Amino acid sequence: GSCHRQGFARLSAVYGGTYMLNKPECKVEFDDEGKVRGVTSEGETAKGKKVVCDPSYVPEKVKKVGKVFRAIAIMSHPIPNTAESHSVQIIIPQKQLGRRSDMYVFCCSYSHNVASKGKFIAFVSAQAESDNPEAELKPGIDLLGPVDELFFDTYDRYEPTNDPSSDNCFISTSYDATTHFESTVMDVLSLYTKITGKTVDLSVD
Q1: Contact 114/121 with Cβ under 8 angstroms?
Q2: CATH classification at residue 35
Q3: Residue 63 in 3-state DSSP?
Q4: Which residues lie closer than 8 Å to 154 by C-beta, 6 or more apart?
């Protein structure tokens, strides 16, 4: 959220970093040897020896690896049979659904300041295995009970194809269908190791 961004911006400033917000049409620039030399936006280039970015900034260095279907539901109640919980994480196993991958259901509410008073927001997501998001996500949507409004979203997933040790461009993998952030955290830890050569130690003394 915004407090994480503010904390990151402050730390960046302390360590000599530059933080640019809401810059349109950022383009990663490479030199004649194919190494990163900075990022350009609105005619200004922020020079840097390494760039960390998501796949949308370097379409020529990524490949499409799949598609995610997502349903977003606005409700006036928690998900039924979850003990009236305001925060819920459900994983429906692929075997139970006759699918090749699991389906994920996540719910949060006004108590997390993400919705109007009395409202709940649920997300149902899955790796696309057809061309029909409504039908494919139905098992997850059926768990939600009555829904006030329902929206569908589809997005492509990309993975990097470059060699960051030769071009100094460190690209994350697109978000997958999971809603518990395990794969995202693993991706970040892996990027950290590629960039610094060190392994993150998250153990608590």
Answers
A1: yes
A2: 3.50.50.60
A3: strand
A4: 67, 68, 69, 70, 128, 133
CB atoms within 10 A of CB 141: 19
Task: Give the whole-angstrom CA distance, residue 131 versus residue 135.
Answer: 9
Question: How many domains are contained in the chain?
Answer: 2
**Closest to 164 (Cα-Cα) out of 59, 56, 64, 53:** 53
58: its two tokens: 């370097």
Decide if 150 contacts 71 (C-beta within 8 A): yes
- Domain extent, residue 110, equals 65-156
How many whole angstroms separate alpha carbon 123 and alpha carbon 100?
20
Q: Does this model's pTM top 0.70?
A: yes
Q: What are phi and psi of 196, to 5 degrees?
A: -105, -20
Q: Which residue is associated with the tokens 């039924």? A: 80
**Tokens of residue 11, six digits:** 């730390």
pLDDT tens digits, one per residue of 139-191: 999 999 999 999 999 999 999 999 999 999 999 999 999 998 889 999 999 99
> Which residues, including other chains, have CB under 8 Å from residue 70's CB and lie 6 or more apart?
123, 124, 125, 133, 137, 152, 153, 154, 155, 177
